[in-house]
Amino acid sequence: MLNRRHIFKTAAALAVALTVASAPAEAGTGSVHLRFVSAGFVVGVGGGKGRLTFNGHTYPLRIGGVSAGTIGVSSATLVGRALNINNPTDIVGTYAAAGAGVAVAGGARVFRMRNSNGVILELKGMQAGFEANLGVSGFSLSM
Fold first, then answer.
1. Which residue has the higher pLDDT, 142 or 9?
2. Which residues, in sequence order, are CB contacts of 25 under 8 Å at separation 6+?
3. What is the distance between the alpha carbons of residues 92 and 94, in angstroms, rounded to a whole number?
4. Are 63 and 50 a contacting pair, CB within 8 Å?
């Protein structure tokens, strides 16, 4: 009888250990602050700087971007969250969103974009200047 109990306890402990060991690591969330300027007529270009704060560390970011169907000049400061991050470099990549918008002398903007690493940016902020766009807008982040 003692032998069966010992075998059962050992098997249960092994099952728990395997379950914990095989569970995927949960992805983290970081905070993002971006500041950039864009300008264009039909095809827009832009760039800027930002930062990612993740697991108590801050990482500098560089922003580059191209948008189609843009007319005007604007600057924006966006803040928000980066979801599904396992490693700070996961944020690197190209983010794109389709849609239409107009901002005249400033306006609130909300973005939800995803890169090929599965990182989702949820950003909001204010835009200053005049810019109208229709089509695909996007930007790339690098470290």
1. 142
2. 86
3. 7
4. yes
pLDDT in tens, 81-126: 999 999 999 999 998 764 444 444 445 667 788 899 999 988 887 7
Residue 132, class by beta-carbon neighbours within 10 Å (0-12 exposed, 13-18 middle, 19+ buried)? middle
In CATH, what number does 26-142 get?
Answer: 2.40.128
Query: Percentages helix, strand, coil for the chain, rounded to the nearest 5?
Result: 15, 70, 15
User: How many other β-carbons are positioned within 10 Å of the β-carbon of residue 122?
Assistant: 16
pTM for this predicted structure = 0.67
DSSP 53-80: EETTEEEEEEEEEEEEEEEEEEEEEEEE
- Provide the token pair at 72: 């005007």
The separation between the first and the last C-alpha atoms of the chain, rounded to the nearest angstrom, is 62
Evaluate whether 123 touches 78 at the Cβ level (below 8 Å): yes
Residue extents of the structural domains in the chain: 26-142
Q: Which residues pair with 47 in a beta bridge?
A: 37, 64
Q: What angle do CA 66, 104, 128 make, to 5 degrees?
A: 65
